Amino acid sequence: MKAEEAMSIQKEASPTGSNCIEVEYFFEEATHLMDALIQNKCEYELLALIREVASRLKLRVIIETAPQPEKGFKRRFRVALKKETKTATAAVTIATAALVAVVAAPLSVAAGDNARKLIEQLMEAQEFMPADNERLRLQTEKLKLQLMASCANLDTSNVIKKRRSNFFELLTRYPKINGVRFTALEEHQATATQEQQLSRPQFGTYILTTNVLEPEEIDDVDIEIISPVLKKSSYKWTGMYQGRPRSFSMQSKEFKKLVQSGKVQFKNGTSINCQLTIHKKMNNECTERITGIDITRVNHYFENDKPVETMEGKKQKKQPEPEITQLALFM
């Protein structure tokens, strides 16, 4: 497939089952030869991506290599549930089709929304919602609700974003490849449940530009202070967090003034309750590492084991709770 011919192609979900993920590579030249290390690295990222998508959908799966098709440069992987159930066909169909939808969703697109629409469309098929078997129909409906609810997890997974980015970054560095196609299909049938074809110019829309993750905010955290900073300086505090000593940047101006003026005294075991902003990075193996922790607000500190509320803590308490909408009542 020539570069100018490599366009984004999407096929609508077909009302049939699927138990395989197939990836096909298209080359700039008329060849079916691919660097073995690049291919193996791409498959490593793709398999990790399949596993993460299934995990986010709360499905426990096994992945096996399936026989390769005769035409084209393709790799095929069979997906099955670890524990067979009556709704296994529907579950595996959703898992394989959702993987194709997720892997082909650029960073700017909510993959969870695409997966929800896909589930709605696929689960309308008569083979998944049999009218003559009420028990199976109810089990399938329960599965559908579980999968729909789990779709939100697809967009919050940094592992999905990183694995997908790694896959397309590998292809970007390999100039022989000018396109790739992902297909969810049944092993012994030619029909596809979901298919996405992408051209080389699109690869960049899937690649992360930084390993820095979005800061995470956690409130109502108790920290035992080991080493406070009593004077104005840029030094960091030390305290016990999650069972181990950590360095913190104290960002609460109010609490720093209380400490510097001597209104807060520290002794062995002194603790504070606070809000944290945690900064992280993720490496290529999707291991997260904390790079910094900020104490952005001190809710209260303890004097003689009694909590003393700060002004900023009181202000936070007085903030009105989000209004409960009519929709929320039914969730």
What does the model show?
There is one protein chain. With 331 residues, this protein is α+β, with helices and mostly antiparallel strands. It folds into 2 domains: 3-206, no CATH class; 216-318, OB fold (Dihydrolipoamide Acetyltransferase, E2P), CATH 2.40.50. The chain is built from 8 helices and 12 strands. Strands 1-6-5-2-4-3 form a 6-stranded antiparallel β-sheet, covered by helices on one side. Helix 1 crosses helix 2. It is elongated and about 80 Å long. The two termini are 48 Å apart.
Task: Give the arrangement of secondary structure elements.
Elements: E1 9-11, E2 20-27, H1 36-56, E3 61-65, E4 73-81, H2 88-103, H3 111-122, H4 134-150, H5 152-156, H6 158-172, E5 177-185, E6 192-199, E7 216-227, E8 237-241, E9 244-250, H7 253-260, E10 271-282, E11 288-303, E12 306-309, H8 311-318
Parallel strand pairs: 9-11
Antiparallel strand pairs: 1-6, 2-4, 2-5, 3-4, 5-6, 7-8, 7-10, 8-9, 10-11, 11-12
Helix pairs in contact: 1-2, 1-6, 2-3
Estimate the mean pLDDT confidence.
87
| Low-pLDDT segments | 1-7, 324-331
Alpha-carbon Rg, integer: 26 Å
**Coarse structural class:** alpha+beta
Distance between the ends: 48 Å
Most strands sheet = 6 strands, antiparallel
Count of discrete structural domains:
2
What order do the SSEs take from the amino end to the carboxyl end, as H and E? Answer: EEHEEHHHHHEEEEEHEEEH
Q: What gross morphology would you assign? A: elongated
Helix content: 25-40%
Number of E-type strands? 12
> Looking across the biggest beta sheet, what order are the strands in?
1-6-5-2-4-3
Number of helices: 8
Beta content comes to 25-35%
